[in-house]
Amino acid sequence: MAADMASSSPLLQGVGIDKSFGAFQVLKAVDFHAARGEAIGIVGPNGAGKTTLFGVLAGAFPPTAGTVRLYGDDITDMSATARCRRGIARTHQVPRPFLGMSVFENVLAAANHGAGLAGGTAEALAVETLERTALLHLANRPAAALGLLDRKRLELARALATRPQVILLDEIGGGLTEVELHLLTDLIGTLKGDGMTIVWIEHILHALLRIIDRLVCMNAGEVIADGEPVAVMADPHVMRAYLGSGVE
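RE: above sequence
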């Protein structure tokens, strides 16, 4: 049902995406779509092209071929900054806070530059976002002093402070303990409950399966399965792609 909804009214869409770096082709004719309010997981072995797809969707680099659409509009040539202002936010596998700034200043910078807000409006959004991500009590702490879970929360908070319609989460659960992962997954679940579109790359499948409506599997730069999560994981092509990959 989720896949039908997405195909009829995609919020974010990639059509025929190729991406090469020199002679090395990383993405091959990838079609991707996400509907408003849908939660999608993306899985696949290392080197499958998952993070590269995020880079193309978020505007970190252009596709070699293909089209990216947001709300039906062609944004293929739009900068990452302009895409952020239009509602696409992403996190990175390794959090990238401004280490010399406080937690509050990091989130305020996202509200200023990502959402284009200023003054009291930006400050209010930063406070609201810190509350939402359970970081308000750490607002004045230097980002460099945070542990891994709180750095992950800050990475998410900075994305949320841009006021996204769709958020791209790149292995945000990596490196966390089981308890920490549960806390972070609960937070992502509240975002889904609020109607946000979530696209989440993750190797920790039990975390994904708590949240997602649809699962996409990539291998060698191509989408090899897309559909209901249990059915995708039972697909023989997916099982072969994961052979020896250490999936949990």
